[in-house]
């Protein structure tokens, strides 16, 4: 086999392999079998005692965690009640159905107000905003489950170890 023929054969094999790989990727992507996951499924917000101290130092100002999922999802974390293992709520800062509208904390009234509409308010536990279930693990860390958003009713509960 001459050098020219050998080069043509190698090039042809490379093209066939490339087309085969491209076809395989397209088949996998269109089959629904591909599972693309970016970021973590759960967010470790930190130790509950540290979070409570931060809330106290901020005079009850909700904690905000920017882009916790690796995407475009900023969340508030608040605590309601006296039990450090219960009463944790996590919810998005964005107001559902309102592009560019955010829930902003109004310390005087103890509630959130929509940045796009002063008449649209949400209680301190985030009811009405997209929320995420929370739990306190055996290490006393607050875990936010980002896999299970609850649209607009804010009904999350905290489970303890």
CATH architecture of the largest domain: 3-layer Sandwich
Rg, Cα atoms, Å: 24 Å
What portion of the residues fall into strands of 2 or more residues? Answer: 25-35%
* Major sheet size, sense and barrel closure: 4 strands, mixed
Widest β-sheet, arrangement of strands: 1-10-9-11
Report, as a whole number of angstroms, the end-to-end distance. Answer: 72 Å
H and E string: HEHEEEEEEEEEE
Fraction of residues in helix: 10-25%
User: What's the total count of β strands?
Assistant: 11
Ranges where pLDDT stays below 50 over 5 or more residues in a row are 153-160
- Average pLDDT, rounded to a whole number, is 82
Q: What structural class do you assign from the helix and strand content?
A: alpha+beta
Principal-axis shape equals: elongated
CATH topology of the largest domain: Rieske Iron-sulfur Protein
Q: How does this structure look, described?
A:
The chain is of the alpha+beta class and 161 residues long. The chain folds into two domains: 1-36; 42-159, 3-layer Sandwich (Rieske Iron-sulfur Protein), CATH 2.102.10. The chain has helices spanning 3-31, 48-57, and strands at 42-47, 63-65, 75-79, 88-92, 103-106, 111-114, 117-123, 131-132, 134-136, 141-145, 158-159. It has two helices and eleven strands, in the order αβαββββββββββ. Helix content is 24%, strand content 29%. A four-stranded mixed sheet has the order 1-10-9-11. It has a four-stranded antiparallel sheet with strand order 2-3-4-8, covered by helices on one side. The chain has a three-stranded antiparallel sheet with strand order 5-6-7, with no helix packed on it. It is elongated.
């Amino acid at each position: 086999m001459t050098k020219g023929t050998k080069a043509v054969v190698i090039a042809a094999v490379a093209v066939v392999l490339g087309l085969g790989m491209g076809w395989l990727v397209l088949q996998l992507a269109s089959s629904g079998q591909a599972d693309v996951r970016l970021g973590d499924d759960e967010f470790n917000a930190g130790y509950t005692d540290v979070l409570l101290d931060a809330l106290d130092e901020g005079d009850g100002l909700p904690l905000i965690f920017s882009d916790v999922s690796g995407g475009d999802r900023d969340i508030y974390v608040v605590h309601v009640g006296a039990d450090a293992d219960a009463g944790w709520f996590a919810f998005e800062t964005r107001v559902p159905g309102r592009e560019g509208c955010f829930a902003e904390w109004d310390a005087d009234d103890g509630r959130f107000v929509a940045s796009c509409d002063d008449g649209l308010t949400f209680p301190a536990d985030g009811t009405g905003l997209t929320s995420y279930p929370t739990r306190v693990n055996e290490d006393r860390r607050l875990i936010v489950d980002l896999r299970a958003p609850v649209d607009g009713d804010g009904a999350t509960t905290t489970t303890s170890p």
